[in-house]
Amino acid sequence: MKKTILVALVTVCSLLSLNGNAQSKDQAAVTQAVSQLRTLMIDPDKAKLEALATDELSYGHSNGKLEDKKEFIEALLNGSSDFKTIDLTDQTVTVVDNTAFVRHKLMAETANDGKPGTAKLSVLLVWVKQKGNWKLLARQAVKI
Q: pTM value?
């Protein structure tokens, strides 16, 4: 009887582990995409930003301003949105099928339009998996 229970327990744990590994693979890929976004927000590259975001991107700032993909990229390239440093903390990544949402705290030093400043934000990112790659679909930030 104990042996049967032990075998059943090991089987269940193995199945849960397999499912968890599949999930963690996508979570790791989304985490990497977030890291790449962070790097590109500090040191923008037009081609890489275009590849990382969906054409339908909706990028919401903490002041209520909304940007589409073109506006988001242009603001980073022309310095109207200029991040000098970005630190991300308290990050969680949840994957459901081909969609993921990421929540984190963002602390940054900025120089938007050449004016030094800081940002302290709580951010929600929505990512979708397209042709095997995780792409940013939406972002919304609020001041904290």
A: 0.83
